[in-house]
Amino acid sequence: MDINTQFDEAGKTYQKTRMAHWDAIAKKRDHWRGMGTWYHRRLIEIYQYMVNPNQRILEIGCGTGALLAHLNPSHGVGIDFSPEMLARAKRLHPEFEYHLADAHDLSAIAGTFDVVIFSDTVNDLWDVQRALEQAKKFCAPHTRLIINFYSHLWQLPLTIAQGINLAVPMQSQNWLTPEDIDNMLRLAGFESISTSREILWPLPLGGFANRYLVKLWPFHSLALSNFMIARPAPQPAQNPSVSVVIAARNEAGNIKSIFERVPVMGSKTEIIFVEGHSHDNTFETIQNEISLHPGTPSLLFQQSGIGKADAIRLGFEKASGDILMILDADLTVPPEDLPRFYDAIASGKGEFINGVRLVYPMEREAMQTLNFIGNKLFSMTFSWLLGQPIKDTLCGTKVMWREDYEKIAANRSYFGDFDPFGDFDLIFGAAKLNRKIVDLPIRYRDRTYGTTNISRWKHGVLLLRMVAFAARRIKFI
Length: 477
Known about the structure:
By secondary structure, the protein is an alpha/beta fold. It has 16 helices and 14 strands. The mean pLDDT is 91. Helix 1 (9-28) packs parallel to helix 4 (83-92), helix 5 crosses helix 7 and helix 14 packs across helix 15. The longest helix has 20 residues, at 9-28. The protein has a 7-stranded mixed beta sheet with strand order 3-2-1-4-5-7-6, sandwiched between helices. The protein has a 7-stranded mixed beta sheet with strand order 10-9-8-11-13-12-14, sandwiched between helices. Helix content is 37%, strand content 18%. It folds into 2 domains: 9-232, Rossmann fold (3-Layer(aba) Sandwich); 242-475, Spore Coat Polysaccharide Biosynthesis Protein SpsA, Chain A.
């Protein structure tokens, strides 16, 4: 590795000094552990939540490879500029591929990855933007870049700990803010998805503080580590196909309008009906309308289970489109709005498009006052839980890529299977995959046929249960 062409004289001196420093630290760790053990254990727990196993993972600044090993990648690659660190990584975790390289010049390394990690690396770089630009070439559209770095508030405590030999000695650091990193991510061709603050007590007996207190005001501002998740700047998809999935129970009076009003989007638009134990003639009406619209690709299924979530899952399982859309059969969200959802996801503006009923004024009977207040409260709670703004959790219209839904379905056991609506199952799953969630405001209309299938009090209690469950599985990990 030759750094002579990468920097001016100051940069060359900076890098050579740090290489020698981290070589010395690698040797020191052979017989010394200090107090950093608990910090690194907590880092591993956080990364294990953020990164699903069996993915292609690249860690830039991998050290001895411990973090990479705990993430169980299908293919793991570690990069470091310290020969001594890599020698130990190869001995301790020989199952991975390693490269001796500087983060500022990764031109000799090839491949794309599902996840790219900078863990406590940007603090030590000469040119963070250049390193991020180098990482960009390893990214596909679905790749997630995860960065963690120290908070400036901890400069004095860390300096004291190093002075009494309790922490690894550090050279002068880049004390960067999340705003600094967000700006450099944009300059390097990335888009931030979420930011979080982690680790309040990097010492023994820190479990309660690190899992709970650090997520609450005012303790979160005292956290040691900032985490940021980003994705490559979006690129438009080329004319993807669409499946519009409609769960229909006692909706016979709306079926004709659905066929007349659902627009054609992308290279192909299919409509998939899942009828659910109706007391009217919904099933027969759908059959009749399919025969009357031979030019509209349509499928009809009857669910064996109960609930909207069960119906939507069956429809998604049968769908062939690249993009999956949910449209409520009551037509309170106009089908004419669906192209806006299509444009939002196909353009790359978002990867999970969530309809929002709570921005524009509603028609008089569209939503009762208590339901409106409840939706507002749940939206604030879930925005806090997920780390991304979610203004309306229960709008029926949601749009995602089929390949993302398949990953959500494969990982459904993580959140459980007691959501009768399906909305939270999808929102939680998208957040767990670190997908970019975008709210799309719509005008919510009065129902013109039939009555709602939602019980305000029964389902309200269930929603509270899901909030508590999600807090344990998403926020307080």
